[in-house]
Amino acid sequence: MQPLAELLAQLPPPQLPAEPSLGGWLCAVLGWCLGLVGLTYLAFWLWMLVRCLLHEPDRFFWLWLLLVVPFPGAIVYAVVRVVPEQGWQPPGWLRRLSRRKELARLKAAAEQIGNPHQFVQWGDALKDTGQWPQAAEAYHRALLKEPQNLPALWGAAQTAERLHRADETRHYCRRILDIDPQYKFGDVSLLYARTLMSLGENGTARQHLEQHCRKWRHPEAVYLLALQCHAEGDVHAARQHLQDLLRDLQASPPAVSRKFGRWQSLARKLLKQLPPPTA
């Protein structure tokens, strides 16, 4: 028998692993990117699925689409249902960047001409780009020149709400309603009601909402009225308002029903929380 040392000497030298080529690295990176995209889409699909289960009035069709055709079903559902309902916009920094020249032009016009109209235009552009404190200042300067300017008052009310200045919001909305109760077809009145509720003025809020709902059947206003009645212990009135809201939306065109699907879902939830009607 040959000695062990001779046998080991006859063995071929060990082969070192080859260095990965550029193509191998590219394939590895591509595989990692595809995996990341897949996980991201899975999370997005789960988000859309949960959202559909909780808030979608036509959930059966959309659930079928999401489960049977997950790709691109989640994208279709987001584009058709979620984005229009939420009113999503590009980020504020992107809007500011895309409208930079327009903002500079409107600022120059407001400071050079100085009419309330120019300050309102500047404030509207600042508001649209998410610059709320600057927009509030522009509307304030317009009101210094013309205190009864309705567009400036409305812009000031919207910015005050966004900046969580409830007292200012109530003040501006009240001034608008004293001048023109029909202004913005009830949007001012609805904001006024929301502000009264946020300030804890529940009795005044209910009275205002009852008057509001006689003129405008905003789903949000009807729901807020039902919520206020429920908080005050008036279960019968709350149930009646919720049932009226659901009937209004069921009788409306599908596009309108989908647009206000959130209030339909909230109305159904609150209706289930109410005690059963007494015989």
UniProtKB/TrEMBL annotation:
Secretion signal span: none
SUPFAM superfamilies found in the cross-reference section: TPR-like (SSF48452)
Pfam annotation, one family: TPR_16
TPR repeat ranges per the UniProt record: 116-149
Alphabetized InterPro entries for the sequence: TPR-like_helical_dom_sf, TPR_rpt
Domain of life: Bacteria
Bilayer-spanning residue ranges: 22-48, 60-80
The protein's name in its UniProt record: Uncharacterized protein
